[in-house]
Amino acid sequence: MHMLIVLGSPRKNGNSEILAQHVAKGIEKGGGTVEYIRLNSLNLSPCQGCGGCDGSGECVIEDDMAEIYERVDAADRVLVATPVYFYAPTAQTKIFIDRFQARWSRKYVLKVRHRHEEGRKGYLLSVAATKGAKVFDCSLLTMKYSFDAMDMSFADSFLLKGVDHQGAVRDLPAELERAEVFGQEIAAGVR
Ligand SMILES: Cc1cc2nc3c(=O)[nH]c(=O)nc-3n(C[C@H](O)[C@H](O)[C@H](O)COP(=O)(O)O)c2cc1C
Q1: Pocket test for ligand 1, best of 22, 85, 87 (most atoms within 8 A of CB)
Q2: How far is the CA of 169 from the centre of ligand 1 (A)?
């Protein structure tokens, strides 16, 4: 089982990244493999809504997304790790997601399915500074529909409220352990 981890925070070594590393540890302990994409280091343009993908399922914008499509298509599991920014995924994450309009076209306009039968699964890992009851609602809904466009089912989420400063999660060993167990359970097929 191979997992692609998509880092959506612009902050290196931030809370979502540290937790994602612990999920990765759990995946590897469970016999799986992991690779990362750091969105903020890539050249990615936002979707232009041009309809250029309607007839082909391929995006016409030429940038680093070409490689990301291939890596997502090749992965058995995708974990999107993003902090909450104004009750939503980060702008970097939203650009990544919107570019899957090309895959939405491939699936729903051209009716081409991609390895759907293999039970590919997507996961959200998110963190937020506050403890608002609805703080993850937008991101959960966004991931449900974007994983569908990637021809994956949205299987589960790892959510943590109340962490703000860079690396704050390092002071919460029980949460680091929970993330590792989350990874092990993904590898074991129970999530
Ligand atoms: C632009 C911006 C917007 C934010 N919006 C929210 C928000 O709406 N709700 C919240 O609880 N935290 C919000 N935060 C706090 C981050 O979610 C929090 O600092 C998080 O731990 C950052 O994760 P990272 O270390 O992985 O980047 C915001 C932070 C920034 C920089």
Answers
A1: 85
A2: 13
